[in-house]
Amino acid sequence: MDKYKFYYYDGRGNGELCRILLAYGHFEYEDKRFPKEGSPDLKSFLRKAPMRQLPVLEKDGDMLCKAPVIARYLAEILNLAGQTTWQQAKVSMHVQATFDLYKDLKSVEDATGKPRAIAWKKFQDEFLKPFLENYNKLITEDKCTWLVGDEITYADLAVAEILSLLADCYDPDVLSDNDNLEAYVKRVFDDPNIKDSLEQVELIGAITPSPYDVTFAARTKEVIHKVFKTEDILITGEIFPGFL
Fold first, then answer.
1. 56-59 and 28-34: which strand pairing?
2. pLDDT tens digit sequence for 91-131
3. 17-69 pLDDT, tens per residue?
4. In what order do the strands lie in the sheet with 62-65?
5. Which domains does the chain have, with CATH numbers?
6. Buried-state track 138-167, b at ≥16 Cβ within 10 A, e below 16
7. Which of 108, 131, 172, 206 could cysteine-pair with 218, CB 3.0–4.6 Å?
8. 106 and 160 in contact (C-beta within 8 Å)?
């Protein structure tokens, strides 16, 4: 059996989908984690990475970069990429939409202090709301169990994971007006194989919620409100290192 090493930051981000797929497939792999930025080990590693960036999947000394590429490679091995070429294209469409949203979210991560709240509001209005409206429509109008075909694919994992991350790390009410989407995310994570995979993924940081633990996020926000006397705080890795 092939042995893998997966290199990414010590957080979820756009590498978490790859970790879930590695666990789902019971791959034999090492989960190599770097601090967020500035580590000498990270700088040294990136000099030999093909694209000079994380995440990286290594197999027998050979390296593969770019999260969407790694995720697709793993999903194809696991038969989670769609049954026909048309389905595979549709699955890729949904997965790419989630990685586009990760890129849009970076403006929030790069901001600090009050500008972070402004960046979050802009992200919500310009990117998140259209994303939620679109996927709520897809789930509701098509009355589908899964996004593509009759079986779960890694498109479902990708969409559920980014919505889970937003609820856990930014706003526990992110799906409060989207009951169908909330039920969909729960359905993905309640799938027995997915649930087993998530239990295998190492928890991140000293305090880490399980995927889509809205109760945890709500409790955290309540504590922050009591301590800082404000509602205008984003629950992010800036407060709890390792969240993202």
1. unpaired
2. 999 999 999 999 999 999 888 888 999 999 999 999 999 99
3. 999 999 999 998 999 999 876 788 888 898 999 989 999 999 988 999 999 99
4. 28-34, 3-9, 56-59, 62-65
5. 4-78 (3.40.30.10), 85-191 (1.20.1050.10)
6. bbeeeeeebbbbeebbbbbbbbbbbbbbbb
7. 172
8. no
- The residue whose two tokens read 């404000």 is 230
Q: Residue 241: what pLDDT? A: 34
Backbone angles phi, psi at 157, to 5 degrees: -65, -40
Residue type, 205: G
pLDDT tens for each residue of 178-194: 899 999 999 999 988 88
Q: How far is CA 155 from the centre of its chain?
A: 12
Could you give the CA distance from residue 25 to residue 89 in angstroms, rounded to a whole number? 22
As to burial, measured by CB atoms within 10 angstroms (0-12 exposed, 13-18 middle, 19+ buried), residue 17 is buried
Cα 39 to chain centroid distance, Å, stands at: 23
Structure tokens at 69: 């590429």
In terms of Cα–Cα distance, which of 38, 39, 154 is closest to 97?
154
Read off the tokens for 75.
């999903």
Q: Which two tokens stand for residue 42?
A: 């990270």
As given in the structure block, the two tokens for residue 213 are: 């633990």
